[in-house]
Amino acid sequence: MTATILDGKATRNAIFSDLSVRVRALADRGVVPGLGTVLVGDDPGSHSYVRGKHNACAKVGITSIRRDLPADTTQEQLHEVIDELNADPACTGYLIQLPLPGHLDAGAALARVDPAKDSDGLHPMNLGKLVLGERGPLPCTPLGIIELLKRYDVPLAGANVTVVGRGVTVGRPLGLLLTRRSENATVTLCHTGTKDLAAEVCRADIVVAAAGNPALITPDMVKPGAAVLDVGITRTDEGLVGDVHPGVRDVAGWLAPMPGGVGPMTIAMLLTNTVLAAERT
């Protein structure tokens, strides 16, 4: 068996085509969506991610608003920029690129974002709405994972899903999304305290690896025909590597590789959240 590749790039491009139509419809109403980014410091990875987000905006017709700050930016200075974007009518939504330099309080910065402009879906109020099942911006990577699975007709209703990693950007919110009635999956959330990870993975119909541990998910752990999505990213001397061993391709029924799987979907959902916010104005 060779897995069907869950092609995040192709799916992203299809979503961009749809978003372009919606952006043109907004323009006819005199509404121009604007996506902002706040980037602090000189981390090459962060700069690459932000550049990719603004390149995507150009493809869809969303205005880019970029605020790049030096690494020695104070918490007060960061909050001033956040307040500026909160008040800017040209900014439909924005995100704070994480991680921030160690001297800055990321939680305080995220909490200061206007929840209605939270394109990343990570504001405490919006995460609370997710728990309560209320409408609000949804976290981009978990939303992208579900959209990718649906577009490839991977069955979700009644599926056993094992999520490896309990981070606030992927693992925890993904479990909440998958257990909505619209998805109706059964979710097991694994982490460093899980006693027998292999046992939890091997019974899963869908495996989402988001631990940041290279080749953590090996072929012998995967049920033949399962869908496996590699979300983890680790920088090594050999380059970026994911959480899923390459040999899993020969066992899984579907595979979202790293790169090219979930990553492009995160940006697609970021732009989707921004367009949705503009459509609600």
Description:
40% of the residues lie in helices and 17% in strands. With 281 residues, the protein is of the alpha/beta class. It folds into two domains: 102 residues, Leucine Dehydrogenase, chain A, domain 1 (Rossmann fold); 125 residues, NAD(P)-binding Rossmann-like Domain (Rossmann fold). The strands form three sheets. Strands 1-11-8-7-5-6 form a six-stranded parallel sheet. Strand 2, helix 2 and strand 3 form a beta-alpha-beta unit. Helix 1 packs parallel to helix 9 and helix 2 packs across helix 9. It starts with a strand and ends with a helix. The model has no long low-confidence stretch (mean pLDDT 96). This is Bifunctional protein FolD. It comes from Actinophytocola algeriensis. Pfam families: THF_DHG_CYH, THF_DHG_CYH_C. GO terms for molecular function: methenyltetrahydrofolate cyclohydrolase activity; methylenetetrahydrofolate dehydrogenase (NADP+) activity.
